[in-house]
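Long-time lurker, first post. I've been practising inverse folding by hand and with some scripts of my own, and I keep getting stuck on stretches where the structure tokens seem ambiguous. Below is the full token string for one chain I'm working on. Before anyone asks, I'm not after the true native sequence, just a reasonable design that respects the backbone. If someone could post their per-position residues I'd love to compare against what I wrote down in my notebook.
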């Protein structure tokens, strides 16, 4: 396994035609030399590991299948059957070994691509979509004062969620991260000795990766998921966030950067549902929520204490050259009153260095705050982050008054930004629960008598929120999301339950109750529900406290599963437009919270492009969205990539609120409204024609690994709300998307669009819309990506698992129709033609995914033939191994 060689040319030098009719250009020659070198190098090391661990026969079998799937990818027909025959000939042990080999190869290839992306970002530097460039454009459009005001209002607010879409075990992810670090070191190696040592250590870790089972034996607990997320904070976010602010600040100041007070605001806020999202997850209890908040506080306080100690230790500015101002002298005196012994010990280490002494004492107070476990009676502990910020700014002001501007505006400013961003809580812990649970609990509480276990748990959650707020402040946990909000009563119920739990409205925790509109029907009813909620006393009271700030969450997944991706996209745009207008009419500062997933069927795709297609008034320099499962690590697992992602999203939030962008979106929405209505009808008819067909649910469960996905210990939350294969109503959107993705069909991302475009029928009209309607062009581009990850011949193999040729042909016809009309609309000769880097990445790995799909199909056929369904048998194990490999190869799951 040495390279991603997939494309060849015919003897006359013309590109060969792939089996699905697409032209495969000779993209291998266009692959960047550095990336090709890394992939070849890591592939060769894997080949050595396979030979050493198992023997040359395994490598020969892997290479045989690799050559066959490449030929099948290019030629189709008989070549596919040859690949299938190779897979069927393996005994169970060899099939598992081959599946694991391809999976490890994908992990290494993904790592090489990430490494190369970082390399390119470092070489390229900033771009036109950077924050500084966006602020400059805003100043040209609106004037510098208005641009500065909008920058001050900027907020990018990611919310980490523990949806079960990260198929990798944490042990696998940790090994991959070590290999990534070694690859970085290899780039810096300057002599043969260090290169040889680097290669030895890489072989050791690749061998570990090969020998580590990719399948979890037990589901992670919610607190396991919390600790996994903490790795991202410790290794990436804590350091990256101030770097992004610094990049903006340097751009704003130009030549005076580092000498002037910071102009960049701390615009990023972080929230988490991990340990707080109990909708459908019985494992998230009040006790878990309390523990999650304390784990986060522990991590951020350790980070702040270490950063303060490091900065304080380097602040060796002599008093004679950098004298303390009166405020710093007074602060030092107060510190001595708090703990004379600590002040004396620090003073011995810092003679005649007042700024250093004060900052090291601040570090001691942070350590005491962490050890005090939130108890305010601890004499050294801070009461809240605001108290810490006051002291840091006293040190900063004293440095400035003494002329030490670079010390004042350097690492100390980074620390201030970190406190402003993360506080003492790290991420606001948001609680989510289903509206029906509240209705049931409230009815029982009102009735009096003994309370059931579920109601006791519901009430305990509010007591836990109150305790978190007492320990860490209101900001640590005040947002409460009500999923499947269907009436204003669903919001009022939460406030009433909180009062019951704590005994009175005065004792109840501060809550911002957020409606979550998920289904198509709920999106349609959203403004009516909000208008009714505005009349309730609890909502009025909270709006008065917040200055009429309100948050509304929109779910992308369930609406897509309800009416198909096209109608859901249009419904979401319409709902945002109506909600934004309602907020303006009622003098409300609205924040729309986007519940997007990583896959196309769940609102995935380039999020910064999606921001720029939002309707007027729906962004207003604020963008909040969920970052789910594997997306967390894709966006934030590497420092360089994380910095780029944060900068792009913040810049998009600013640009989306510019009059030029809003006017364009508003004019396009009005101009293309008739086209949208026609697409809506046609796409919905096509979608319903499939999913409402008799026997569809059973067919879906047969032709995809939907049932078997539930056996994979991906996350703490169950995949279902009580589904049988007789109905899809209670199937969560995640396994719905995951199953179609695994079957290489990706139906959730595109089904119905072909019929919608065909209903329009006029290519000139469609190309006009593609050029001038941002929502439409974003949809087309995302569907191109979704189609690029489909494979017609492999899909046909999955569809052949059931005897429903009518449904299979209906699906394949719509796939062909969608591809044809999407290409006609974009003017491309092949999908992703306009995104060559992404196109290359998808095409180069697709044949290797085919190999894993064939292995999974072999397992599924065995399972479907078996009378007894034993999750521990060889077929189930092979299937789950293939699930992990396909997820790694496609780089998303659900």
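-- Answer (accepted) --
I ran through it position by position. Result:
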């Amino acid at each position: 396994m040495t390279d991603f060689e997939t494309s060849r040319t015919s003897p006359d030098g013309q590109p060969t035609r792939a089996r699905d009719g697409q032209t495969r250009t000779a993209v291998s020659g266009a692959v960047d030399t550095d990336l090709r070198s890394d992939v070849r190098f890591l592939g060769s090391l894997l080949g050595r590991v396979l030979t050493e661990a198992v023997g040359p026969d395994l490598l020969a079998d892997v290479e045989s299948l690799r050559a066959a799937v490449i030929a099948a990818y290019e030629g189709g027909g008989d070549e596919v059957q040859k690949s299938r025959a190779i897979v069927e000939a393996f005994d169970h042990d060899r099939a598992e070994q081959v599946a694991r080999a391809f999976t490890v190869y994908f992990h290494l290839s993904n790592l090489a691509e990430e490494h190369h992306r970082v390399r390119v970002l470092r070489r390229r530097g900033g771009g036109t979509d950077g924050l500084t460039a966006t602020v400059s454009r805003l100043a040209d459009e609106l004037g510098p004062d208005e641009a500065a005001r909008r920058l001050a209002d900027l907020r990018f607010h990611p919310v980490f969620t523990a949806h079960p879409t990260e198929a990798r075990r944490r042990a696998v992810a940790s090994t991959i991260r070590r290999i990534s670090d070694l690859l970085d070191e290899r780039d810096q190696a300057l002599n043969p000795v260090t290169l040889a040592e680097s290669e030895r250590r890489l072989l050791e870790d690749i061998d570990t990766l090969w020998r580590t089972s990719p399948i979890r034996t037990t589901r992670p607990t919610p607190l396991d998921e919390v600790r996994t997320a903490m790795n991202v904070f410790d290794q990436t976010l804590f350091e990256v966030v101030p770097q992004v602010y610094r990049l903006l600040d340097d751009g704003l100041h130009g030549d005076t950067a580092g000498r002037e007070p910071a102009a960049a605001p701390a615009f990023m806020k972080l929230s988490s549902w991990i340990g707080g999202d109990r909708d459908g997850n019985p494992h998230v209890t009040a006790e878990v929520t309390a523990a999650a908040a304390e784990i986060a506080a522990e991590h951020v306080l350790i980070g702040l204490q270490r950063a303060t100690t490091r900065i304080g230790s380097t602040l060796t500015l002599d008093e004679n050259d950098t004298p303390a101002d009166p405020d710093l002298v007074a602060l030092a005196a107060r510190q001595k009153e708090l703990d004379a012994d600590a002040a004396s010990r620090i003073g011995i280490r810092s003679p005649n260095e007042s700024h250093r002494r004060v900052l090291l004492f601040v570090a001691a107070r942070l350590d005491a705050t962490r050890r005090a476990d939130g108890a305010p009676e601890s004499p050294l502990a801070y009461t809240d982050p605001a108290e810490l910020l006051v002291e840091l700014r006293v040190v900063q002001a004293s440095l400035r008054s003494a002329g030490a501007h670079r010390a004042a505006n350097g690492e100390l400013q980074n620390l201030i930004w970190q406190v402003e961003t993360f506080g003492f809580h790290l991420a606001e812990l948001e609680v989510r629960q289903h509206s029906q649970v509240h209705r049931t609990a409230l009815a029982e509480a009102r009735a009096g008598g003994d309370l059931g276990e579920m109601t006791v748990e519901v009430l305990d959650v509010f007591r836990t929120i109150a305790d978190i707020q007492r320990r860490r402040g209101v900001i640590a946990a005040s947002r409460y999301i009500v999923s499947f909000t269907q009436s204003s009563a669903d919001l009022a119920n939460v406030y009433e339950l909180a009062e019951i739990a704590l005994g009175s409205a005065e004792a109840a925790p501060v809550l911002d109750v957020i409606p979550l509109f998920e289904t198509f029907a709920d999106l349609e009813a959203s403004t009516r529900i909000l208008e009714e909620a505005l009349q309730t006393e609890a909502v009025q009271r909270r709006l008065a406290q917040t200055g009429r700030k309100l948050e509304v969450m929109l779910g992308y997944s369930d609406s897509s599963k309800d009416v198909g991706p096209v109608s859901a996209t249009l419904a979401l745009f319409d709902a945002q437009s109506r909600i934004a207008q309602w907020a303006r009419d009622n003098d409300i500062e609205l924040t729309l919270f986007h519940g997007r997933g990583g896959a196309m069927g769940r609102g995935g795709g380039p999020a910064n492009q999606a921001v720029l297609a939002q309707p007027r008034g729906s962004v207003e320099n604020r963008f909040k969205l969920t970052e789910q499962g594997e997306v967390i690590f894709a966006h934030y697992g590497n420092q360089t990539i994380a910095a780029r992602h944060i900068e792009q999203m913040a810049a998009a939030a600013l640009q989306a609120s510019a009059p030029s962008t809003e006017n364009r979106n508003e004019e396009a929405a009005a101009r293309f409204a008739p086209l949208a209505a026609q697409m809506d009808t046609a796409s919905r008819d096509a979608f319903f024609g499939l999913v409402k067909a008799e026997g569809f649910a059973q067919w879906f469960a047969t032709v995809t690994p939907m049932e078997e996905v539930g056996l994979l210990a991906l996350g703490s939350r169950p995949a279902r709300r009580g589904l049988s294969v007789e109905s899809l109503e209670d199937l969560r959107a995640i396994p719905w998307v995951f199953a179609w993705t695994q079957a290489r069909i990706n139906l959730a991302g595109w089904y119905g669009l072909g019929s919608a475009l065909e209903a329009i029928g006029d290519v000139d009209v469609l190309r006009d819309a593609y050029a001038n309607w941002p929502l439409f062009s974003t949809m087309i581009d995302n569907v191109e990506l979704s189609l690029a990850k489909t494979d017609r011949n492999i899909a046909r193999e999955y569809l052949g698992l059931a005897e429903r040729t009518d449904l299979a042909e209906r699906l394949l016809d719509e796939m062909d129709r969608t591809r044809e009309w999407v290409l006609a609309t974009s003017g491309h000769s092949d999908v992703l033609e306009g995104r060559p880097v992404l196109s290359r990445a998808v095409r180069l790995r697709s044949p290797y995914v085919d190999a894993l799909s064939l292995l999974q199909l072999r397992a599924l056929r065995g399972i479907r033939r078996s009378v007894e369904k034993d999750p521990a048998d060889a077929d189930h194990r092979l299937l789950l191994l293939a699930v992990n490999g396909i997820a790694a190869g496609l780089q998303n799951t659900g």
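A couple of notes from the structure itself: The longest helix spans residues 92-124. The CA atoms of residues 20 and 793 lie 7 Å apart. Happy to go over any region you disagree with.
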